[in-house]
């Protein structure tokens, strides 16, 4: 895939290289975004098509994670999201929160879902401090 946008996207575009590097190391991962818990784009990989796509993905990621965390709390489980959604084009993986942020990526159908999820969790833990936006007052 070629990058469709050249303008920086998100509140922390200086960290976009982390997501692009993740995709280069994890076979089949693309369109990776880091999202604040309240749905703002923190940064994106180079494979995200546009600012508009990044904002849609961020809103959806935040909403899905919020639903899963709410369900977990109602059932007495830890408030964490580790979501896999199967689509016709692959699997969407959402993980977090890592501080005040979530990570989301699209994995191709032939990708090893376990490996993608494991590496997404490792990425989140390793960049937790950098991706955690300050709490807004």
From TrEMBL:
It comes from the Bacteria. SUPFAM superfamilies: Roadblock/LC7 domain. Residues 16-107 form the Roadblock/LAMTOR2 domain. Transmembrane segments: none annotated. This is Roadblock/LAMTOR2 domain-containing protein.
